[in-house]
Amino acid sequence: MSRRFCVVLSVLLGAAGFLNAQNLVPNPSFEDYLVCPQIIGQIPLPNTAPLTVEEWCRPTNGSSDYFNSCGPAGNSAWVPTNFRGHQEARTGAAYAGMYTALYDYFNYSEYLQIQLQQALIAGHQYYVSYWVNLADNDVAKGHDQLGALFLNDYMSNPGTEGRILMAPQVASPTGLLYDDTSGWSRVYGSFTAAGGEAWMILGSFQEYENLNFSSTVQIWSYYYVDDVCVLDLNGDPLSSSYTDSTCVSFPMTLSGRAGSGKFLWHDGDTTQTKTVTENGVYWVKSIDLDNCAFSVDTFRLIEDLTEVGIDLGNDTFLCDNQVVTLRVSDPAFTEFLWSTGATTAEIVLDQAGTYYVTALGACAMGTDTIVIEQVPQPGVSLPQDTLLCNGDELWLQPLQGHQGTIRYSWNTGQDSCCIVATTPDLYILTAENICGDQQSDSVRLTFTECYHCLLAPTAFSPNGDGLNDAFTVLSSCVFTSYHFSVFNRWGERVFTSSDIQEAWDGTYKGQPCDVGVYYYYVHAQPVVEAVGEIKKTGEITLLR
After folding, report:
1. Which candidate, 45, 98, 283, 450, has a CA 20 to 30 Å from the CA of 396?
2. pLDDT in the model for residue 452
3. How many CA atoms lie within 13 A of 40 on its CB side?
4. Neighbour-count burial for 267-295, b at 16+ CB within 10 Å, e otherwise
5. For residue 15, what pLDDT is reported?
């Protein structure tokens, strides 16, 4: 077995091999020893060869002790029965012991000192713990304010057995008495390192009179010590996990690892569970007290709804005295909000309008809109009975057209909304909307021989050659009224006259008009009433 001394070993302070170590305390449960202890007081000062236990030493001349079950039963340093009582080791077969208060020797105190495997790093948070048991022999009494002091260098003061009156980085609360003589109790705490602390001392760092005891009669306090732990909570954990959860529902309760004894959350909370209410990244460090190790669990939570399509159907029509039912049938949705204010999966409508719904589920969101129009009545209305000239034609169409919702039927067998009538007959149109409502109308057309009074050429050339230089409508009738107009292709009137003898010379506002097609319109009333009113339109081509 190699001999490990309680000496200053600078190589340990910067050794890369310890960067990933969990417990920074070597020989934390006192199991490693050089010689099995036979008597008490076998823990040496620093820079002294170990007598029994390895790594550990004492800072003062107060003679702390080492106990192990390896020796013969019944000796003063045996486990479980020794000079201060009876106690099984918390783990393994060994532990240490020290007086922290002694009746009639108020200034006397013992300590345990050890060099850490790595100097502490500035700004890092460290968790510290060790377990104690109050020795049960004679009149032992428990007290409060046990702690752990961290120093950059070791302490060696062989000239004193007195108390170390320094402020420890970790101390148990005032009033918390460690007076259990049967089981082990944990002294623990955490702190942020200044940096460079390489040594740790365990014990009591208060004036005797500032301690609180479980009794004030014949007081002495002797504690067994086991399982010492120092963890760098900013270092590498023993294990870690990362949970990426999207589409979560808040509030959500997160939990540290079961079986751990201490927890530290991102915001400093120390409870095992934490309830969160918004998106974010959360972490918890779960400290395994039995094994002096910690684990980190990270949770990334995003309340992100997945877009899921909703289909209310195509835009539709609503008939009189009927209803339309709209329904969201996808089981992914459990909550609904319609534009009507309804919150059910299905609504029934009896009014036209534009309707929309927003639906939510545990991990889904969807919307859709539908337009419902009121179906119009057919609204058929044809012209009055009409007399036409032979060879004329008449365009028949209902005055109200709703081709999208109306079906048409003519007595001629045609099914379009509009037809061209060229023969005398009674024309009957029946219209039916998609709701089954019907309406009919009819018109009778009569044709007769008409006396044609007007004749118009199809072209003229106003170029001043004396041939066909003007455009006029030729008449063989006498009229009581006569109106003649010419329009260009943009609908602009370029000539008008009420004199049947007046012709258009192809100019407008004194300027020659462009070559092209022009349109004329004649409205005239012949003197002979049998001829009837004349409305004539046509095209004339202007040439140069």
Report:
1. 450
2. 66
3. 17
4. eeeeebebebeeeeebbbbbbbbeebbbb
5. 35
Give CA–CA dist 198/218, Å, rounded.
37
How far apart CA 277 and CA 364 sit, in angstroms, is 19
| Tokens 């609360």 -> residue | 173
| Helical (H) or strand (E) element with 497 | strand 493-497
Residue 278 near residue 302, CB atoms below 8 Å: no
Do the Cβ atoms of 443 and 419 come closer than 8 Å?
no
Q: What is the pLDDT of residues 469-504, one digit of tens each?
A: 999 888 777 788 999 999 998 889 999 999 988 999
Identify which has the larger pLDDT, 372 or 385: 372
Query: Worst-scoring range by mean pLDDT, 53-62, 378-387, 505-514?
Result: 378-387
> Parallel, antiparallel, or unpaired: how do β-strands 239-246 and 293-302 relate?
parallel
Model confidence at 10, pLDDT cuts 50, 70, 90, reads very low
In this structure, are residues 33 and 66 in contact, taking their beta carbons and an 8 Å threshold?
yes
Q: Is the Cβ–Cβ distance between 414 and 428 less than 8 Å?
A: no
The pLDDT value recorded for residue 206 is 94
Q: What is the largest CA-CA distance in the chain?
A: 156
Helix (H) or strand (E) holding 118: none
Is 86 within 8 Å of 135 (Cβ atoms)?
Answer: no
Distance of CA 222 to the CA centre of its chain: 57
Specify the 3-state DSSP secondary structure of 511.
Answer: strand
| 3-state secondary structure string across 310-348 | CCCCCCEEECCCCCEEEECCCCCCCEEEECCCCCCCEEE
Strand spans (E) along 205-340:
220-232, 239-246, 252-255, 262-265, 273-276, 280-288, 293-302, 306-307, 316-318, 324-327, 335-338
For residue 26, give Cα distances in angstroms to 6, 85, 94, 205, 290. 11, 27, 14, 23, 16
Rounded CA Rg of the chain: 55
Residue length of the chain: 544
CA distance 221 to 102: 6
pLDDT of residue 451: 56
Cα gap 321→291, rounded to integer Å? 78
